[in-house]
Amino acid sequence: AANILSRGTIPEDDNLCIITNSGGAGILAIDELRNRKIKLKKLNNVSKFFDDIGEYSKNPIDLSGTADEAKYIKCAEICFKKTKFDSYLFIIVVNGFVEPAYVIKE
Length: 106
What we know:
By secondary structure, the chain is of the alpha/beta class. The protein has helices at residues 2-7, 23-35, 69-82, 100-105; strands at 16-20, 61-62, 87-91.
């Protein structure tokens, strides 16, 4: 995550939401953003919408290592409808529970 962020084009402001299935990868992404002096906005008043997939009230949203495609898609749908972020960064660590190509396609 940090390697991609260090080479790629990323937003220059804090209006970015990170969704991941790996807390470690999320932390690496945050570290790289902090190196660029970007502090992520917190999620405000959206955790109540995540009741059926867990409690996620921080940015990055860590769906846990057992997150499958349905969990990613549900989280994305909630975020797209209930938050006002300009950009979303999906960090999907391949672990046998999720197929990244399917999540991206959906």
